[in-house]
């Protein structure tokens, strides 16, 4: 037990170190954006007809703490970030934690669901494709998974939009119907959300599934030929039972291990799919913050949160792996 | 009796020489021999070469300048012109298209309306003189095809009247260029970082690995967007093009660096390296003569595999308006306007370039996959 705690603690510490490094990268990037929050805010005031002087900008800088050295501001930012506090948005002037709150969770749920769907499809399909002897099945599956790689999600989203506009006359965009957009959570809202969320889940899951099929297939074809499978077959274990009990269990480890990077890949596509489907969640806010308004505070917070959830998933999968894989468990628990 | 004996002997000889050829073949020859056997990869390679050539010779193959200079003012959002040989007015050996006339009158409520005039044919001509372009440092005016009067738009025109056919072929060029610069830069960074990390090992390796992992954890496209947002808006389109390629390279290195490191770490402890060391070979000799050749083929394969992702990232970035901008042509730039309901409903030919891009990326993926299998020395023994 002690060893396990030690293992978990080391992993947690590593995760925190990674997060701190990531926060440094993100924070530095945000610092490199031309102009700072004070200028941006006062530029906005300027458009409202107020006269702005250099002294005003300086005063605003002092108020926002932008006159302090870089490292101190980074330290403050990271400490607050770990408490879930990201300060105010440069442009919108509202608290980022409040602004993001629900939107971030919706994004995360959508992404995790796509990941789940991807593996629900990929594990059986990958196993079939690795063990099937029929060249037709093999080539068809190969082509599908290649298409998943070659057709980026945003093109798929565009194609679906094109198709649904031509056929149904509705482009299927948005996450909520008009009447539920700003409503509080209720049963009806959840139903409405589900009736629309399947499309982003499908689109985000599309290439994730293709990747997952390739991974499962490669792992399975490596394992199927091994001697322990032959030994089990010699003992009289056959068919599905043989596959599930022996090679599939062996292939599970690397798959669990790579979940974090799969999530990373899905996050990659999130902002672009969000833009096409005009979703109103964190991905869309990120594009808004980066492409339109240069809102570094908001953009930094979103990138940090996305990365933090990947680091979190990596930590969880490490622990799951330690618990499920007897080899890893043995080496930790002694 | 003697006959069959000689046949057997020659068979044995052929077999022997084949074996000899197999054992004395260089790595490149072996890879090529294995690659040739994969039909999908060979088709992919053929398509890829065709696309690369058509990208390189785009200015010649396409009839018009893809920028705003080459636009057709009289034919905006125009439907694709498909050359015909035959219609109700008779047959012609020379393919032709119809004349489109733009007119407005009281009947059309004074809006500009494009009408097809089926009686006025425009014949396709080959090697006409057209917009000037430079290819390999020389200026030309001849294009592959055109029409005798007016303009031909095989894929239609976009909202400003630019020829989509010309833009598509030019954008293949752009994608290849962005991908090449990005991959090369990523490769150099990966070789340095992965090389240092793999060759020295120990704590250098641990620290570099931690940094690499941290960079890998950040989702690339959001990071990409963040960096691309810094590019000052007043920069020229060529400058933008280079900066975007450089950013692509800077974000693409961690995966490659990891591969380089893994190759180096496994190869470093092989017997042949030890043998070379015992013979008194210097580090630089070992790296240059023994280690690098042992994995160059893998690295080339990795480069080809990572190429389509560079192209796709560029497309995604340009699509959301943070990447390349007009007048540079790329798929992302061309797709910027297609999410509008107007385009979705009425001008679907704006989507034609997508087909070319899926083909391009698919060809790359097939070739990369085929090369990966071909470069695997145990590919034959596995099955």
Task: Describe this protein with a few key phrases.
heterodimer, A: 334 residues, mainly alpha, globular, B: 383 residues, alpha+beta, four-stranded antiparallel sheet, two-stranded antiparallel sheet, 6 strands
What does this entry show, briefly?
Chain A has 334 residues and is mostly helical. Chain A has 14 helices and no strands.
Explain the overall architecture.
The complex is a heterodimer of chains A (334) and B (383). By secondary structure, chain A is mostly helical. In chain A, 79% of the residues lie in helices and 0% in strands. Chain A is built from 14 helices and no strands. Chain A has helices at residues 2-32, 37-47, 54-64, 70-82, 96-131, 135-150, 153-167, 187-224, 227-234, 239-245, 247-276, 282-292, 296-324, 326-333. In chain A, helix 6 (135-150) packs across helix 8 and helix 11 packs across helix 12 (282-292). The longest helix of chain A is centred in the middle third of the chain and has 38 residues, at 187-224. Chain A is globular, with a radius of gyration of 24 Å. The N and C termini of chain A lie close together (9 Å). The model of chain A has no long low-confidence stretch (mean pLDDT 77). In chain B, the strands form two sheets. In chain B, strands 1-2-3-6 form a four-stranded antiparallel β-sheet, with no helix packed on it. A two-stranded antiparallel sheet of chain B has the order 4-5. In chain B, helix 5 packs parallel to helix 13 (352-375). With 383 residues, chain B is α+β, with helices and mostly antiparallel strands. At the A-B interface, helix 1, helix 6, helix 7, helix 11 and helix 12 of A face helix 6, helix 7, helix 10, helix 12 and helix 13 of B.
